[in-house]
Amino acid sequence: MRTAALLAVCALALATAATAAARTRATITVYAAASLTDVFPRIDPTPKYSFAGSNTLAAQIQLGAPADVFASANTTLPQQLFQKGLCSQPVVFTRNTLVLIVPKSNPAGIHSVYDLAKAGLKLDVAAPAVPVGSYTRQILKNMALTSVLNNVVSNETDVREVLAKVALGEADAGFVYSTDAKTVPGQVTVLTMPAWAQPKVQYGICVVKNSANASAAQAFVNEVMSKAGQAKLLAAGFLPRVKPKTTK
Amino acid sequence: MIRRALAAAVVFAASFTALAFLALPIVAIFAHVSPGRLAAQLSNPVVTDALVVSLKTTLIAQALILVLGTPTAYVLASRRFHGRSALVTLVELPLVLPPAVAGIGLLAAFGRAGLLHTSLPFTQAAVTLAVAFVASPLYMRQAIAAFEAIDPNLVAASRTLGAGPVKTFFRVVLPLARGGLAAGEALAFARGLGEFGATIMFAGSLRGVTQTLPLAVYAEFDVNFTIALAVSALLVLISAALLLTIKLVLQWQPSRRTSPSRFALSISS
């Protein structure tokens, strides 16, 4: 009787271990920039996703987080991981542009980026360490508008926090990617920023070195780079990974 | 005999595992970098700014909790009326609510687009409100228990001897409940100092304005891990000191007949 019970327990344990192994073989974990929250599951719904500020994800990977793929909103963070031997050589898989958004109600009456200098205005941005926060400071610097940073009321941890606080109407304005603004139609008004002031917003992707599913991880990267993956990105408003040659 | 030894071994193993599990992360914070480097980070302006914001908002929140919470707790403890349990549940609710829910609730209530249409979000007052909201139940529970433990005969005696309700409250009730109130207040203070989720949602994070110590840990996590560790170490020390203070305060008055310490210890230990 006791032996039978013991055998049953062993069988159960083996079965659980087997299914767990099968599951880990099948499912990979993708750490991706918050701005990819909507589009990545459309490219492939099967991986487990962790969306956050790319800088937070990179720090977690450095501390040994179980990620298989790292998709960052810049190229510097994956490049740093690559140099430390923590991920494969990153490739650029898409690009993006920065926009200024205001709530539909536009409580502060902002009609251009130059209105951000108004005293007492509530400007929400991402923290400087977050890629979008760094781009925000670059674009303002390019336009000689860094003084508007005096109106910053919060340094958010990722771009979607900025989006949420502006969409809610709590902040008067915020800088996000054009693709984020598209996810809350009807809640925000988009003010485009001049092309000459735009920073180079390139997204880098790499396979994490200590991934237990390196082949599945590489397959995911290929999927993102594929025609179908790129089409999904374009449909969501992202830019082609290679800047098209301008025709005269 | 063998069975008893086995039982003792199991109990010992269980306790050891539990204690080791609790101690490990705390030890790790201090072991990750040398104490000298940790201490050196404490003079970093990020840390000092966060400390000032944290102390200021937590102290104001505690004042609010004491001034508004004490009479509320007394009414809930001394009166029996319809809906009393519903009110006590309401008072205790923030204790078990996820802080993110508290944050959403505060935004929905006090946000510009919220019920009251205030412009509180992103201000230091918003941090104070978030702290008061999540920390108040710890004081309220202790206060209600402390007031309930007072012998009603003492209150009645005071009244028959000619003291009015206000005088009775300040001269009889408050001194008798002192230990429980102090313990609850210290717990609420510690909880307030650690508040994170509701604050980041409702008040945001801006250095020197709304960035409290826990928010600084999160902000520095991927920027400067050593600062994040130093702030964490500081929070561990403050929290441990507060809990130890509670224990000492309660041990100083062990023979108090209306002592609420039984309840206090069960929460704090």
Provide a compact summary of the structure.
Chain A has 248 residues and is α/β, with parallel strands linked by helices. Chain A is built from nine helices and ten strands.
Radius of gyration of chain A: 21 Å
Major sheet of chain B: size, sense and barrel closure? none
| Chain oligomer state | heterodimer
Q: Which bin fits the share of residues in helices of chain B?
A: over 70%
Low-confidence stretches of chain B: 261-269
Task: Say what the CATH topology of the largest domain in chain B is.
Answer: MetI-like fold
- Write down the overall geometry of chain B: globular
CATH topology of the largest domain in chain A: D-Maltodextrin-Binding Protein, domain 2
User: What's the CATH class label of the largest domain in chain B?
Assistant: Mainly Alpha
Number of strands of chain B: 0
Number of helices of chain A: 9
What is the fourth-level CATH superfamily of the largest domain in chain B? MetI-like
CATH class of the largest domain in chain A: Alpha Beta
Ends distance of chain B:
33 Å
> How many strands, what sense, and barrel or not for the largest sheet of chain A?
5 strands, mixed
What form of chain A results from the Cα inertia axes? globular
Span from first to last CA of chain A? 85 Å
